[in-house]
């Protein structure tokens, strides 16, 4: 496991001048969370929360799916890893990329509950909230994390992205202690 994490770290390039991060040659993140948060609030204003979630989730899942697939192909031992070992590795990549830490809280067949105490957009929300006097939200905010988790489960289970659905059910920006994501992989 440690060796794989070293390989992953070696595959990450950070370009601070352009505020970009690349994983295995693919750009996977832009801007700082504070800035992204304001862009996403703007998108929500125009599209509504649900459509903004769908759009951001799709873009985030697609941008991460290919680099994660390549990393899994580069790991010769991948086929012998259990699902939770694969996910643990992918979640290490999340930390390296600055998406925040995520934990599997419950796994029940094709349904998994994932929690995060510091997801990227929630952190960005709190950084802005004081300055712009934003009040607590009535809908979840971590649209990008929904997409990253979709890519994570698609790659860990070896299925296409459209077989995975992710819904955030509690969010720190709504006053919850943790962000909770319900993941379902269609059989
Ligand atoms: Zn959240």
Structural description of this entry:
- This protein is α+β, with helices and mostly antiparallel strands.
- It has one domain: 2-Layer Sandwich (Muramoyl-pentapeptide Carboxypeptidase, domain 2).
- It is 50% helix and 21% strand.
- The chain is built from six helices and seven strands, in the order αβββαααββααββ.
- It has helices at 2-11, 33-47, 49-74, 83-97, 120-132, 143-157, and strands spanning 12-15, 20-23, 26-30, 103-108, 111-116, 164-170, 179-185.
- Strands 4-5-7-6 form a four-stranded antiparallel β-sheet, covered by helices on one side.
- The radius of gyration is 16 Å and the shape is globular.
- The chain starts with a helix and ends with a strand.
- The mean pLDDT is 88.
- Zinc ion binds next to loops.
- Zinc ion (ZN) binds at residues 119, 122, 140-142, 168, 171-173, 179.
The percent of residues in helical segments reads 40-55%
The first-to-last residue Cα distance is 28 Å
Note the beta-strand portion: 15-25%
Mean pLDDT: 88
Number of helices: 6
**Gross morphology:** globular
Structurally, the number of domains stands at 1
Q: What is the CATH C level class, in words?
A: Alpha Beta
Estimated radius of gyration? 16 Å
Q: Give the bound compounds.
A: zinc ion
Number of E-type strands: 7
CATH superfamily: Trafficking protein particle complex subunit 3
Which spans of ≥5 residues are poorly predicted at pLDDT below 50? Answer: none
Structural class of the secondary structure composition? alpha+beta
Biggest sheet: strand arrangement? 4-5-7-6
């Amino acid at each position: 496991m440690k060796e794989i994490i070293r390989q992953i770290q070696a595959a990450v390039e950070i370009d601070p001048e352009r505020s970009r991060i690349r994983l295995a040659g693919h750009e996977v993140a832009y801007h700082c969370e504070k800035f992204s948060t304001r862009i996403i609030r703007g998108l929500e204003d125009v599209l509504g929360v649900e459509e903004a979630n769908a759009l951001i989730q799709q873009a985030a899942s697609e941008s991460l799916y290919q680099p994660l697939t390549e990393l899994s192909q580069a790991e010769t031992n991948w086929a012998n890893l259990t699902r939770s070992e694969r996910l643990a590795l992918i979640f290490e990549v999340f930390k390296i990329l600055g998406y925040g830490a995520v934990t599997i809280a419950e796994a029940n067949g094709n349904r998994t509950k994932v929690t995060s105490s510091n997801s990227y957009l929630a952190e960005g929300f709190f950084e802005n909230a004081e300055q712009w006097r934003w009040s607590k939200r009535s809908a979840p905010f971590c649209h990008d994390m929904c997409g990253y988790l979709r890519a994570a489960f698609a790659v860990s289970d070896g299925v296409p992205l459209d077989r995975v659905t992710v819904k955030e059910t509690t969010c720190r920006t709504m006053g919850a202690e943790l962000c909770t994501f319900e993941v379902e992989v269609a059989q």
